[in-house]
Amino acid sequence: MTKCPRCGEPMTGGICNNCGFPVTRFKKIAMPVIRNGKQATVGYQPEVWKKWE
Ligand SMILES: [Zn+2]
After folding, report:
1. Å from CA of 6 to ligand 1 middle
2. Whole domain around residue 48: which residue ranges?
3. How far away, in angstroms, is 2 Cα from ligand 1 center?
4. Which of 5, 18, 21, 25 is buried most deeply by CB count within 10 Å?
5. Count of structural domains, the chain
6. Residue 52 to residue 46: CA distance in whole angstroms
7. How does pLDDT run across 26-51, given as a tens digit for each residue?
């Protein structure tokens, strides 16, 4: 379930039904969550990823 980054309402399409925020565009600049077992990073953190390997 995706949540609108503007109003926080859950949404199923690319545009928030509540406020009209276009989340498909937002995803391009959103920071990815990279998981490795119990560990996780938010955004681009190659220094942390190196330690995982
Ligand atoms: Zn919204």
Report:
1. 5
2. 2-52
3. 11
4. 21
5. 1
6. 10
7. 555 567 788 888 888 888 788 889 99
Separation of 32 CA from ligand 1 center, angstroms? 20
Centre of ligand 1 to C-alpha 36, Å, is 30
Spell out the SS3 assignment of the chain: CEECCCCCCEECCCECCCCCCEHHHHHHHCCCEEEECCEEEECCCHHHHHHHC
Using CA atoms, how far residue 39 sits from 14, 17, 30, 48, 49, in Å, is 29, 34, 19, 10, 10
Rounded distance from Cα 13 to ligand 1 centre (Å): 11
Sign of CA dihedral 31, 35, 41, 45: negative
